[in-house]
Amino acid sequence: MAAAHQKKPAAAGGADEQVSKSLYAKAEKIYPREVHGLFARLRVLGVFGLLGLYYLVPWLRWDGHQALLLDLPARKFHIFFITLWPQDFIYLAALLIIAGLTLFFVTAIAGRVWCGYACPQTVWTEVFLWIERKVEGDRPRQQKLDAQPMGVHKFRIKATKHFLWITFSIWTGFTFVGYFTPIIDLGQRLLAFNLGSWENFWVFFYAFATYGNAGWMREQVCNYMCPYARFQSAMFDKDTLIVSYLPARGEPRGSRKRSADPAELGLGSCIDCTLCVQVCPTGIDIRNGLQYECIACSACIDACDDVMDKMGYEKGLIKYTTESVMKGGESHVLRPRIILYAVILLGIMGLFAYSFSQRISLGLDVIRDRNQLYRETSDGLIENVYTLKILNMDQLAHRYKLSISGIPGIELRMDLPEIQVDSGGVLELPVRLRAEEGELEARSSEVVFSLVAEDDAMLVATEEARFLGPR
Question: What is the pTM of this model?
Fold first, then answer.
């Protein structure tokens, strides 16, 4: 008994040592093997499509301006035919909420397809891996090169790879800044070495982030930095699609000749070739079950299907399936979780569409002069002074007509003969309201300013204000 008690601290110490090693051990470089197949072609299409949009959209023109431009100094966002202003921040917030709920909805149905096909980390890492393979060769040649001592040959190859990585990263950073500064003007100033300090900072900061994340950190971003892998289980259930190895069919695994009958050898379909591990960008063994490091890129599916085809076995030893199917049940697409996500998502999208359709491209703010509550004019009228801020959020310049209501016989006085505001312009207009004291029923009366465009009766803005008097 005493001996048994003495072993427990040692076992605990051994466990602590294992945890310490796993936390502080130097990360080993993963060399993903190139894979071909249906899902690999889908990933390539995703990379070309998403990066094509990223690098092309800033160069598109729309109605005389950059099609997509988040112009922070001017405080307006051009999104093709729509121009949003700070007053429209609610729409940007709604778009982010819709994007987040869409991600939850897709994850509940199809698992981590976002991570495997559309996540920026995945997309840019695919490009960096492609450059690495073109320069250094396939997986065995990369491993052999890294095992060699540094020499002229190795330095030349590594320098070429990093030069291409850095060039591509700088172009990525330049494109990123091009979404916030007109990219044509940005390019001209870049060629003249005349970029501003903040533009230089963000070009090289984003380039550094791309180079570091996609070139060096790769799977460590997914494993240690990305929070999505940690809370995705809250959206998973037994009917969510996951990449799974079928142990009932594959075990016991073991190597064999192609002509051998696995049943006679007492083996399953898995020949233990480890190709599913070699192609995994995060370096996991899918045969150990679902792991949070799995990004559902399905590279292991393509690799295993190719092996099964060569062996003459049925494909699908590794495939997209659900926990319900693996346990012998049926998969259900329509379930309470999916219906709830869909209802909430459609509801928010409907409210967004309706609210945006009712949006008026005209803003009116009324600021009452607080230095003087009111004053009495020489002819016995009570006068209040206001400053009107008129914001033209339309693509065209407009002339406006201003009127006032709320108090019988109230007069509107302003210094300008006409109200004209250019597209995107803001006009501060001082106005004076005068009313007879006998028409004031209380010390504070409500008045309503109404502004309407002379050439478009649909552009109307109204704003309430208070008129103060002696009563």
Answer: 0.82
The domain spans of the chain are: 27-359, 362-468
Retrieve residue 155's tokens.
């330095």
Distance set, CA 98 to CA 103, 104, 161, 341 (Å):
9, 10, 39, 11
Burial group, residue 247, by CB count within 10 angstroms (0-12, 13-18, 19+) = middle
Residue with tokens 């999916």: 338
pLDDT in the model for residue 464: 94
274, 174, 164: which is closest to 215 by C-alpha? 164
- As a residue count, the chain comes to 471
Residue 373, pLDDT score: 86
Q: Using CB atoms within 10 A of its CB, is residue 173 exposed (0-12), middle (13-18) or buried (19+)?
A: buried
d(CA 419, CA 401): 7
> In the beta sheet, which residues pair with residue 456?
453
Query: Left, alpha or beta for 193 (phi > 0: left; psi -120 to 50: alpha)?
Result: left
Q: What are the CA-CA distances from residue 34 to residues 142, 272, 273, 372 (Å)?
A: 12, 18, 15, 77
Q: Which two tokens stand for residue 302?
A: 């393509």
Q: What is the 3-state secondary structure (H, E, C) of 87-98?
A: HHHHHHHHHHHH
Rounded distance, CA 350 to CA 343, Å?
10
- Residue range 448-463, pLDDT digits in tens: 999 999 988 889 999 9
The per-residue pLDDT for 61 is 92
For residue 430, list its beta bridge partners.
387
pLDDT score, position 11: 44
Question: pLDDT tens digit string along 190-233?
Answer: 888 888 899 999 999 999 999 999 999 999 998 888 888 777 77
Pick out the chain residues at pLDDT < 70: 1-25, 471
How many angstroms separate the CA atoms of 105 and 345, rounded?
8
Of the CATH numbers 3.40.50.1220, 2.60.40.10, 3.30.505.50, 3.40.50.880, which one belongs to the domain with range 362-468?
A: 2.60.40.10
Q: Which two tokens stand for residue 233?
A: 């289980």
